[in-house]
């Protein structure tokens, strides 16, 4: 039996989210963001979610130092943003300047204008394989449905049309 995890997992549709955090630089904040597909609800009581970040990712160190982040769940209008956040730190910073976002009231991490969003604080972490799984306690939520969600399946982003 051969093991081709990538080929098999590309058939599993996942949502696409933007995770934002920041680091303090003197009297200002330097925001950073990354698009993720490995986000899920873990518990309702307490309210916990998880995301997996590559251990060699620049943004992981910032997430662990800040211990806060926001997750914005993208719809089809977020495709360009998701693609822009695959770049280096400066490319990601430029992409953040082009989006509608406000600092979250509970964490200060940027909340994008998205159909759903959550603000989280670090609850736990687990180094697993080549990723670190961050468990976040949800401090605030919000959003509203406007357009079909953006999902990742068969190797790329797709609009999920309504049945």
Automatic annotation (TrEMBL):
- Flavin reductase like domain: which residues? 9-159
Q: Name the keywords, alphabetized.
A: Oxidoreductase
Q: Name one Pfam family in it.
A: Flavin_Reduct
The answer to whether keyword Transferase applies is: no
Q: What is its EC number?
A: 1.-.-.-
Q: Which family does it belong to?
A: Belongs to the non-flavoprotein flavin reductase family.
UniProt protein name: Flavin reductase family protein
Query: Which species expresses this protein natively?
Result: Streptomyces narbonensis
């Amino acid at each position: 039996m051969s093991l081709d995890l990538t080929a098999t997992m590309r058939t599993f549709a996942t949502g696409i989210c933007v995770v934002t955090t920041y680091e303090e630089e003197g009297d200002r904040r330097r925001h950073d963001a990354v698009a993720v597909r490995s986000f899920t609800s873990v518990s309702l009581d307490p309210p916990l979610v998880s995301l997996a970040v590559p251990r060699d990712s620049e943004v992981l160190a910032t997430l662990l130092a800040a211990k806060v982040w926001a997750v914005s769940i993208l719809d089809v209008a977020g495709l360009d943003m998701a693609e822009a956040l695959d770049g280096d730190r400066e490319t990601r910073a430029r992409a953040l300047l082009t989006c509608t976002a406000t600092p979250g009231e509970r964490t200060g991490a940027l909340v994008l204008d998205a159909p759903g969003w959550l603000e989280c604080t670090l609850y736990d972490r687990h180094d697993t394989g080549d990723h670190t799984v961050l468990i976040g306690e949800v401090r605030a939520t919000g959003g509203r449905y406007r357009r079909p969600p953006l999902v990742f399946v068969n190797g790329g982003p797709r609009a999920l049309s309504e049945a």
